[in-house]
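does this look right to u?? iron/sulfur cluster version
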Amino acid sequence: MLLTRERLAALADAGLCHVQISFQGNEPAVADRVAGLKNAHEKKIEVARWTRELELPLTVNAVMHRQNLHQLADIVQMAVDLDADRLEVANVQYYGWALKNRAALMPTLEQIEETSRIVEEAAVRLKGILAIDYVVPDYYALRPKKCMGGWGRQFFNISPAGKVLPCHAAESITGLEFESVRSNHSIAWIWQNSEAFNRYRGTGWMKEPCRSCEFREIDFGGCRCQAFALTGDAGNTDPACTLSPMHEQLFKQAELEAASENTRFVYRNFAGGTLETGDNHGA
Ligand code: SF4
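got this back:
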């Protein structure tokens, strides 16, 4: 909310080459409720317009779940209207605060089927106008995604505090120390030598069933953060995989949650979360 057009222009002058904005719906009633912040949607629309005025490529990241999937077709149109280059239909990943809100967010199988239909139709209709990325959500897939292209293989990001991370959510894994850009080490050293980047790089760290699995160099065991969040050990097979001994139990629980009438959110704060109040909770 601190971004101004002048700051965005200064970032573009400094070499910023792409902007991605996450939207929680296609209009304020749903989007501001999910964000827990009044006028959040309006501000994002404004930033999207500045982005295109400054001739920066724009990706609309549509964060989808049970309580906004009915807006997907309108979100596709919103991305076109904003002159976005790319739309990422990003089903919520259930770690961090999304895991605490899983019962309120988990989509139904019918919603996932409808999502696939909308995405397929839009991808054909908007070919050459809007590129659309879509991945089936973990809880409805047979194999996990190749998270971040594999830990420490293709990607790093730098957190606002200066930590160099193998993925945005890596700090959710307790017990791992991430080096800072303010340390005496270069980013190249951190990438090649730091303990955190090497811990789950490649396949040597794997336990069974990943260790002897024919897919181990295809998906690299899935997502370390999800494995940690759901099993307590980031070295376990991502339970999104049907070969994980925890998959069945997890899937059944998610199915029950998708059918539940729990629609109230727990909003993130330093006090451990606040339960949504009032009648405006999508029930
Ligand atoms: S067992 Fe491991 S390597 Fe094999 S498919 Fe599942 S997550 Fe991938």
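The chain has twelve helices and eight strands. idk if thats expected tbh
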